[in-house]
Amino acid sequence: MAKKIALIVGSLRKDSLNRKFANALVEVAPPELQFEFVDIGDLPLYNQDLDDAGTPPAAWTAFRDKLRGVDGIAIATPEYNRAMPGALKNAIDVGSRPWGKSIWNAKPVGVISASIGAVGGFAGNMNVRQCMVTLNAPVMPGPEVYIGNGSALLGEDGKVNNEKTRAVLAGWAKAFAAWVETNASKG
Ligand SMILES: Cc1cc2nc3c(=O)[nH]c(=O)nc-3n(C[C@H](O)[C@H](O)[C@H](O)COP(=O)(O)O)c2cc1C
User: Fold this and answer.
1) For the CA of 78, the nearest atom of ligand 1
2) What's the CATH number where 54 sits?
């Protein structure tokens, strides 16, 4: 049966490389993965006082409800200063509360990363994985995808036209489909 997958891009910029690779991922993924992009740019910064008062911002509630209803979560992120971008960390924090109601608990997660640099966003990718372990989310160990020199892999139309990269993304998506199938029912 098809699995609903939330696809989160860790970058907010409109020309994001990671969004372009996420778009390519959707194109090459097997049909059993039904992706839906979930935006994180409108999430107010996490402040526990608002949860404690029972007055969470509507954007937090919508984000939590959306992610609670999916079978898995895929994340495509850059690295900022050798960590994940603040917007993505904020989204992870928002999803992790109120205490005891984390949307990440037992939710299958997969992470890919891309950078204009050679290291392919490795540190940002690992930073997300670190959080997921703490949050008891089964995060797919491999295949690992760190896309370096990302802008060189795009065609003039801004799309990912590099066949090797598309094959890597297809392999990742196939593995992620199996990962979600194995782990989804435990959520
Ligand atoms: C605040 C900031 C910090 C960055 N730090 C890193 C870094 O640590 N390592 C790296 O490879 N690239 C770094 N970059 C460059 C990003 O990899 C590059 O801007 C990339 O295109 C961002 O992803 P996006 O295209 O999806 O927005 C940084 C960029 C910004 C804006």
Assistant:
1) 23
2) 3.40.50.360
Of all protein residues, the one whose alpha carbon is nearest to atom 13 of ligand 1 is: 80
Q: Residue of the nearest CA to atom 14 in ligand 1?
A: 80
Report the pocket of ligand 1 as residue ranges, CB < 6 Å: 11, 13, 16-18, 78-82, 115-117, 119, 121
Atom of ligand 1 nearest to the CA of 150: 21
**Nearest residue by C-alpha to atom 31 in ligand 1:** 80
Domain assignment of residue 95, given as a range:
3-186
User: Does the model's pTM come out above 0.90?
Assistant: yes
Q: Report DSSP letters for 110-126, one per residue.
A: EEEEE-SSTTTTHHHHH
Count structural domains, the chain.
1
Are 61 and 97 within 8 A, CB to CB?
A: no
Q: What is the mean pLDDT of each run of 10 residues along the chain (187 residues)?
A: 96 97 98 98 98 98 98 98 98 98 98 96 98 98 97 92 96 98 76
**pLDDT score for 184:** 83
